[in-house]
Amino acid sequence: MGLRGPRAFSISKREAIGDLGPQAWQPAGLKRWEKVVAFIESLTITSGALAGQKIKLRGFQRKFIRDVYREVGGLRPVRTAVLSTGRKNGKTQLAAALALCHLCGPEAENRGEVYSCANDRFQAAKIFQEMMAMIAQSPWLMERCHAIYAQHILNDLGTGSVYAALSREARTKMGLSPSFVIYDELGQAPDDALYRAMDTAMGARLNPLMMVISTQAADDFAPMSRLIDYGLKVNSKLVKDPAFHLTFYGAEHDDDPWSVATWRKANPALGDFRSMEDVQRQAQQAQSMPAMENSFRNLILNQRVASETRFVDRIKWKACGGAAQIPAGARVFAAVDLGATRDMSALVLLYGDAQQVFHVLPYFWLPGNPQTRTDEDRAPYVEWIRKKLLYSIGETTDPKAIALKIAELNGIYRITALAFDRWRIGDLQRELSAIGCHVPLIPHGQGYKDMGPAVEVLERHIVQERIRHGNHPVLAMNAAHAVVTRDATNARKLDKAKSNGRIDGLVALAMAFSIALVKGMKPVDVETMIG
């Protein structure tokens, strides 16, 4: 297929075209990052109040470019760069300019491959469209860059490089060899499949760069969250990795969300090209309509907060992360949430000490191929299985494996009672009887009547920081995903259908609290739980 675009002509003119353009980055003495800045500032703003003017990078943008494009021994050490801010801080313009810089500017290489990645076709087209608007304002880029509009592809006739916009819907990313990849809004991606595909494809290049520009994701287990958490460790020197860079702008959890000072933490362009009036409007709506507050915190303040109302506050949950200590022989309560054929199963032990602090010991089982389930749920199941934080039990849920673990734990501790959902409990009872384990079983419903009091007592102990769960990562994932729903009487239950992921361990924990403090013993009798 021939090239299509403004002033299209034969590719045989490539050598002549290679010298076109003002090339403001060429004066002697410029450092590598200064050449990138010079190139970007030679481009024209294409929309908004400043349309028609040359781009003028702000201090935070220049610092990011300086940190990423610093040179050591002729190469750029940074291979992965992450910039995270609140929405509308100029990310699309910067992403488009950097893509052009790697396509036909100072970062271009012969037959380079430049890609912008996004979560859907519409988002993927935005950077391409911004690049095309910039090209239309620059005569030398008009001569040099040619587009295949329908496929969102650009060709640079000077270097033979190509740019393409990719989305998660693209059928294949095999055979690519990227020199530069920019991922737009990874924080909204449901999984990291496209990110991993592009990152692993860069191995054939001498000095490739993967760049992510995005707001935060909603929970700790999203791909963007893992990148930010790793970058914070690098920035605090807990991890040494010169190939990774993070620039992060976001509000702290306990900052006043309605303060201009808080807004500025997450929006470095606030009052400049990030409209102060727009943020004020959204803040006012969020104050008046509580349902909008989490969205404001996530998208404007760049906090890791789900847009829907989650059951557990992540800061409170982490505050309960002390090590669980259950002495051998202690009396414990237990609960099991037995999964369907392909669902995760959870068993939780609960022990109350003399200070009425409750220690939690969870166990989890996952049927199916671990790698497939990892990809489906975007959770690191393979890693957790390797660390023995999660058990793999074949293709389907096996009640026998869970029964054996219950018997083992009943030999170490004394299980006073075990709560169970009626789903498939007959299979578990049969397996327990077969191995001679006679643990008292207490049926526990999953509806509002039974789960309402269970949710209340669980929530109270989390808020009062009277739980020690040892930061078990699978249970933490369950807590992060948990969503509650209410009935007409305002009773609540943990709702698997509404939750954004697995919550089996938290359901079992609520059931264990229920038989310990609601259905069975009262709080004043907790000392009898101690062996």
Tell me what you see in this structure.
By secondary structure, the chain is α/β, with parallel strands linked by helices. The protein has 2 domains: 31-248, Rossmann fold (3-Layer(aba) Sandwich); 314-529, Nucleotidyltransferase, domain 5. It contains 19 helices and 17 strands. The protein has helices at residues 14-17, 32-40, 59-69, 91-104, 121-136, 139-144, 193-201, 223-235, 260-266, 276-288, 293-299, 314-319, 370-377, 381-386, 399-412, 425-434, 448-463, 473-481, 504-517; strands at residues 80-84, 113-118, 145-148, 153-156, 161-167, 180-184, 209-213, 244-248, 331-337, 345-352, 358-366, 391-392, 414-420, 441-443, 467-468, 484-486, 492-494. Strands 3-4-5-2-6-7-1-8 form an 8-stranded mixed beta sheet, sandwiched between helices. Strands 9, 10, 11, 12, 13, 14 and 15 form a 7-stranded mixed beta sheet that branches. Helix 4 packs across helix 5 (121-136), helix 15 packs across helix 16 and helix 17 packs across helix 19 (504-517). The model is unreliable at 1-18 and 521-531 (pLDDT under 50).
Q: Which descriptors apply to this entry?
A:
Rossmann fold; 531 residues; disordered C terminus; 2 domains; 19 helices; seven-stranded mixed β-sheet; alpha/beta
Give the strand order, joined by hyphens, for the main sheet: 3-4-5-2-6-7-1-8
Decide which structural class fits the backbone. alpha/beta
How many domain units? 2
- What's the CATH first level of the largest domain? Alpha Beta
- The residue-averaged pLDDT reads 87
Largest sheet: 8 strands, mixed
Portion in beta strands: 15-25%
DSSP strand tally: 17
